[in-house]
């Protein structure tokens, strides 16, 4: 089997940035926005931070997807021949689709919030009594999504580790034998 260092690196670095950046924003940026001296300042800080992260996140996701597609190509023989690899790949694809959907929806909501750069907010995802209703609704959804996205991308990290374990020579032999014996 040929080495796939480049595709693995793209896959892993993109996923690491996607996971780590969204987790850092949930843990640090959104709560830190509360330290602004005014409610409008809190909204401005959070919106500016998220707007700066968005293009980096988009590149990270693209790099991850590019590496993922290349990994499927380089592992197509194992996917077909080794028991358990196709189901792992299908599960990983489903998780990736869910993470992409959550990230995309989060961006739609984020645009609603950042359309008013200095919208009043308690912190990055918590509205105040003076936050416009449509923005407040988006913030409440973002409060949930800020944790959903790192959970999904973190699950992808775990599945990727499992996929790496499936590539051990003993696992390949066992999986191919299981496929041949119909188990």
Task: Write up what this structure looks like.
By secondary structure, the protein is mainly α. The protein has one domain. It has six helices and two strands. It has a two-stranded antiparallel sheet.
Short note summarizing the structure:
The protein is mainly alpha-helical.
**Would you tell me the overall average pLDDT?**
92
Q: Which sheet architecture does the biggest sheet show?
A: 2 strands, antiparallel
How many helices in DSSP terms?
Answer: 6
Unreliable segments of 5+ consecutive residues: none
Query: Which geometry do the CA atoms define?
Result: elongated
H/E series: HHHHEEHH
- Class of secondary structure makeup: mainly alpha
In total, the number of strands is 2
From the N-terminal CA to the C-terminal CA, the straight-line distance is 24 Å
Number of structural units classed as domains: 1
Report the helical percentage. over 70%
Strand content: under 5%
Largest sheet, order of strands side by side? Answer: 1-2
Radius of gyration: 20 Å
Protein name: ABC-type Mn/Zn transport systems, ATPase component
Organism: Cellulomonas marina
